[in-house]
Amino acid sequence: MGDELSAVDFRALARSSPWLWSTVQLTYTARRGWDAEPVRAWVRRPGSLRVETLDGRLLQAGVLPPGSAVVLTAGGGEPARPTTTLPAPRRRDDGLVADRSVVDRFDTDAPFYRDYHWIACLDPVELADGDPERGPAGTTITDVHAVDHRGRPGWAATVVPAPAYEPRCACCPLLPSAVADRLEGIAPTAYADAHLVLLDRATGICVSTTELGGPRNGLGHVIGIEAVDDPLADELFAAGGRG
Fold this sequence. Notes:
- By secondary structure, the chain is mainly β.
- Helix content is 9%, strand content 31%.
- The chain has a single domain (7-237), classed as outer membrane lipoprotein receptor (LolB), chain A (Clam).
- The strands form 2 sheets. The protein has a 9-stranded antiparallel beta sheet with strand order 4-3-2-1-11-10-9-8-7. A two-stranded antiparallel sheet has the order 5-6.
- Strand 7 and strand 8 (152-161) form a beta hairpin.
- Residues 67-83 have low confidence and may be disordered.
């Protein structure tokens, strides 16, 4: 019984990503009805990113200051290495984050690619905590269980946005919903009944979402994590850096 997972555990993992990894290599495929071309990316916190098509064509490379939403370019130049120190959140005995209210979510942003859905995947705190002025929790989480996702341990859950749901950006949330659209000033229409969400256990990255029911049934995204915390040289983040 002690190995059973709960919504509390899932929320803790969803809060923890910024403190669980420093570099990651991954593939990312959006199944949102647009931008579906899969890409491969190398991310080095706090501000280094390289994105390519799967056949190696460079899309984006460079270094950004923490919290910046300016899109990186594939231009030349030597990347500078920004530094940042995050306040220490309150952790559980297992190392996962119990409370990160001392940390501004903007300060934990990984480098930006295309839209804030990317950032939310890399730091899915919106699955854990919502706007306290609108309710006690941003999501309802049920059926938490361990899974294998592309050879890596993960936790899966059924997640429903609550009235307090607070996406990193309401125009591109992890959980498309009436709540997100209202925040954007869009009249609600029809939405999924729930979302199947998978978190990578080692990194806290949201590696998959799938809408369950509704007009967009089956849409979401999928990430394959290929390497974690491998050293990534500065040269990788310059245009042509993998030659």
